[in-house]
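Narrative summary of target 7.
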Amino acid sequence: MCDGGDRHKNINHYELQKAMENAKEAVLSGESLILLAECAEGLGHPVFERWAREAKCAEDCVERFGREYEFGGHKAALIARVSLETDLIFVSSMRPKLAEICFFRHA
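Modeled conformation, tokenized:
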């Protein structure tokens, strides 16, 4: 379980990716990673949000990253890639749909 670290890393989903990258190292494939973060600023980056919304599934986002790079979209792809190996659970007051488009299960 990770609480998102300092305020900067839990202010939005875009920044939360940094805490997730560190925490995933302690989780075996197929296990759950629970992230706690307020994310008061929502998703946090317009390109990140667009990539997450445009992906039909995590695989779409990862595949897109393999053929194009756009700053901001890379973080959506990194989260998507982790979600394919780890059950990502997000605890926040953020609307559940926002967590779900970013490849997390909302709790």
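The domain at 7-106 is CATH 3.90.226.30 (2-enoyl-CoA Hydratase; Chain A, domain 1).
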